[in-house]
Structures are given as structure tokens and as C-alpha cells.
User: Which sequence fits this backbone?
């Protein structure tokens, strides 16, 4: 680190890239790299800038001075960018959910010129990035679509999943591409949870994330057009429903059923989530599952309007998705037990600090955590805002009744009545769907009302609709 001032730009992007590859978050070293890189940025080539941006985005580091420097230099040398530079810089901005309008607009122009040279990976990353920018850039989408169809034979499951998701978020009527993606996905992907995977069983999983994205994209397109699913889309949806959606829903229902052991149902569900590789069910299938697994319904429209405004104000113009910290919920509860009433007034819940994986004590908060367990999938999901709101109500119920046992049948907790309303800035993940099911298991007479938005689908029609400033408020 002492020698970092003597490093040249290429020397600095290499260690940053290596740290990111190893996921070694060495804060002092990354800070030193950022400071020196800003100083030398005007000597940096396209490849160095891309590696730097990629490394810091991989850590989720929103280092504003470095990002501003990368942005300025990228605009200066955009003409030199090759396909991996365009998709790499776009991926970095999209991962950090930064709408750097001048740079995104310049990257779009460069991408349109070069898309015929993009491979399947860079095509899908480009589509994914612009969907996360929430920009409907019609010339770029047309170019992506043409290139994707031309290179379809090279698309793997992840590229198909990303591209189908992006096309769905853009809400463009690209039936030809979507059908081609569905056909290719059916031809090349294993059945969800299949144990007969062709290769790399250690690093692979059931491909659940991709199945959810592609099935969600074809069903959303069918809903929009008002036509029933046909052909490849219908076949794909049927496989998804049989091997992924219904097994997961049945397993989450067990978690809500007091006749089934809580720990047994939790273990089976956790194993199934791992086997299928599912992190969420997408907006439409989550809406379908929630009433089944948690006996919830939608809150009144008037409350939802207030909740949406409160969430928007808490986010202060930021997108309510992309990282755990960006997802927020608005919730309220009223619990009645015998002749006592506890009210948790309307308020915004943010993500909690990461807690211990398992409850460690016997206070009401720890007992509530034992009743509403999080489901681990790739990352700890213990601190999600939805679970924070449910834990606040469950803790109040435990304190109110003095109960907190594992058995929901005949327990004192089950005597509680009342209601809980929850509105999320984004689609709840599978862990939070399970949290709602467990809330219903232990508080079956407390009426659950749940609504959420899909944060990516409030797209802008063009760049002119977007404010010309960064999310930190600095004008550009
Ligand atoms: Zn969650």
C-alpha cells in the first residue's frame, strides 16, 4: 500500500480487479486505490476504467468521487470502447443502480453501433443493465433484439434469463424474441431441481432463478396481450408450474401449517430452495402464492396510496430495489389479546443490521426470531425489511401474551386477533414469503394484508424524462 502512489493506472486496476475476483474487501487498500485512481484517471485506457468500475461495483461500493472520475473519463474516450468495455461499465452502473444519464446515453450510442460484434454474454448484460436503468431506449432495444436472435445458439440459461427479464421489464411487444428465448431455454435447460445435470454439479443449482425469470416474462407478455399462452411459452410455463412453483408453494404451506412440525417444515423448505436454486418467485407468481401460503389479501387502495407515498419519500428518489438496503416496507399492525390492545402505527421499516444467524437468548425479540426464521439462499436474508416489520409485530405479540413456544396449536399466541398491513418497495424474496407464512402459522387470527411494487417496472420512455443528476444530488 505504501507504494501505491508510484503505481500507474493499469497497476491500480489490476489489484482492484483481483480483490473483487477473490471477494476480498480490503477497505484501506480499496480506498488507497480509489484515491490514486482519481488522480491519474485522465491517463486511463478503456480497459483500466472498466476493470476499476467493475471491481468497485462488485463490492457494492458507491464511491462517488471515483465514479464521477470514471464517468468523466469514460465520456472522453467512449469512442475507444470495445464490447466488453460498454457492457462492463453499464453492468457496474446498473449494479450500483446509478442513473448517470450522460454516460448511459453515450454508452447506448456506442452499443448500437457495435451490437453486431457483441457475444451472447455482453448482449444479455447490456439488456439487463438498461432494464435496471429503467430506460426504454427503443433503438437500443431493437438492436439488442436483432443481435440476440442472430446469436441465440450461443445463449446459455443465465443469458436467456437476463434477456427475458429485461424484455419483460421494457414491456415491449417483442413476441418473436421471447418465443425464441423460451424455445432455446426449453431445449437447453434441465428441469428445475433435476438431479441429472450435465456438468458442474458443485457450482450449479436447479437454475430456479432463470426458470422464474423466463416463466415470468412469458406469462407477463401473455397477460399484456390478453391472449392465452401457446406453443413454447405454454410448455415452459407448465414445466415451471409442475417442478418449481407448486413444489415450493406446497412446502411453504407446510411452514404455515401448525399440524406440521415447524423445524421439520423449515428444514425441508430450506433443502428445496437450495435444490431448486430459487431466490424469489417474480412479481406475478409471488402475487399468486401469497394468499395460498399466508392467507393474506390486498390492503385497501386508500392505505396503499399512503404507503406508496411514504415509501417514495423514505427512498428520496432512489430505486427501492437492487440491494437489501434499498428495499423498504411500510407497515402497521393492531394486535388484540383478551382485553388488551397493542398498536404499531404506520411507519417505514428499513433493512436491519445483520444479526446472529440463530436466536441466542430468551427475550421476546429472540423468541420472535425463532418463530419467523429466515431462509438462507446464497446470502443471509435475516435482515430484510419485510422480516423487520413482521418481527416488530411478533415481538409485540410475544410480549403481550407471554407466549413464544414453537407449537401453534392451542397456544396463547394463536388467541391474538387484529391485523397487519405491509407494503413493500419491491417483490418479496422467498425468505420473506416464508416469513409471512410463519407469521400466519403462529398468529392465524391476525389478518394479513400485503401489497408490493415491482421497482424495476416504472420505466422512463426516454433519456429526456430523467433528471440530469446523480443520486447523491450533485448536478452533472
Ligand atoms: Zn426478503
Assistant:
Amino acid at each position: 500500500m505504501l507504494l501505491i502512489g508510484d503505481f500507474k493506472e493499469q497497476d491500480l486496476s489490476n489489484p482492484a480487479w483481483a480483490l473483487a475476483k477473490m471477494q476480498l474487501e480490503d477497505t484501506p487498500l480499496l480506498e488507497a486505490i480509489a484515491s490514486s485512481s482519481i488522480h491519474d484517471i485522465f491517463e486511463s485506457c478503456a480497459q483500466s476504467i472498466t476493470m476499476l468500475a467493475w471491481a468497485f461495483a462488485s463490492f457494492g461500493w458507491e464511491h462517488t468521487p471515483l465514479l464521477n472520475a470514471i464517468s468523466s473519463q469514460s465520456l472522453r474516450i467512449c469512442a475507444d470502447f470495445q464490447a466488453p468495455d460498454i457492457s462492463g461499465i453499464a453492468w457496474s452502473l446498473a449494479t450500483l443502480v446509478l442513473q448517470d444519464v450522460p454516460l448511459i446515453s453515450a454508452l447506448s450510442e456506442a452499443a448500437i453501433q457495435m451490437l453486431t460484434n457483441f457475444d451472447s454474454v455482453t448482449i444479455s448484460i447490456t439488456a439487463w443493465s438498461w432494464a435496471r436503468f429503467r430506460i426504454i431506449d427503443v433503438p437500443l432495444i431493437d438492436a439488442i433484439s436483432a443481435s440476440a436472435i442472430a446469436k441465440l445458439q450461443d445463449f446459455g440459461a443465465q443469458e436467456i434469463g437476463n434477456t427475458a427479464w429485461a424484455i419483460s421489464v421494457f414491456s415491449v411487444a417483442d413476441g418473436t424474441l421471447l418465443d425464441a428465448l423460451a424455445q432455446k431455454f426449453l431445449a437447453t435447460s434441465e428441469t428445475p431441481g433435476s438431479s441429472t445435470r450435465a456438468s458442474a454439479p458443485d457450482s450449479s443449482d436447479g437454475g430456479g432463478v432463470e426458470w422464474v425469470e423466463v416463466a415470468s416474462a412469458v406469462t407477463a407478455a401473455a397477460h399484456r396481450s390478453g391472449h392465452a399462452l401457446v406453443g413454447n411459452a405454454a410448455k415452459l410455463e407448465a414445466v415451471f408450474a409442475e417442478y418449481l412453483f407448486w413444489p415450493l408453494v406446497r412446502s411453504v404451506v407446510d411452514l404455515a401449517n401448525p399440524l406440521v412440525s415447524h423445524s421439520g417444515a423449515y428444514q425441508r423448505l430450506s433443502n428445496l430452495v437450495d435444490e431448486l436454486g430459487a431466490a424469489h418467485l417474480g412479481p406475478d407468481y409471488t402475487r399468486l402464492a401469497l394468499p395460498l401460503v399466508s392467507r393474506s389479501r390486498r390492503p385497501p387502495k386508500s392505505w396503499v396510496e399512503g404507503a406508496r407515498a411514504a415509501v417514495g419519500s423514505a427512498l428520496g428518489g432512489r430505486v427501492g430495489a437492487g440491494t437489501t438496503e434499498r428495499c423498504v416496507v411500510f407497515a402497521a399492525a393492531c394486535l388484540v389479546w383478551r382485553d388488551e390492545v397493542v398498536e404499531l402505527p404506520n411507519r417505514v421499516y428499513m433493512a436491519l443490521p445483520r444479526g446472529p444467524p440463530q436466536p441466542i437468548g430468551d427475550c421476546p425479540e429472540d423468541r420472535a426470531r425463532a418463530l419467523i426464521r429466515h431462509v438462507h439462499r446464497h446470502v443471509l436474508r435475516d435482515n430484510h425489511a419485510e422480516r423487520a416489520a413482521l418481527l416488530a409485530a411478533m415481538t409485540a405479540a410475544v410480549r403481550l401474551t407471554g407466549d413464544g413456544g414453537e407449537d401453534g396449536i392451542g397456544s396463547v399466541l394463536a388467541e391474538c386477533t387484529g391485523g397487519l398491513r405491509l407494503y413493500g418497495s419491491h417483490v418479496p424474496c422467498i425468505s420473506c414469503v416464508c416469513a409471512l407464512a410463519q407469521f400466519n402459522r403462529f398468529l392465524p387470527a391476525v389478518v394479513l394484508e400485503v401489497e408490493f411494487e415491482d421497482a424495476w417496472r416504472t420505466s422512463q420512455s426516454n433519456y429526456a424524462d430523467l433528471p440530469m443528476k446523480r443520486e447523491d444530488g450533485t448536478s452533472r
User: Anything to note?
Assistant: Strands lie at 329-337, 340-349, 417-424, 446-452. The two ends are 32 Å apart (CA to CA). Residues 381, 384, 386, 428-429, 431-432 surround zinc ion (CB under 6 Å).
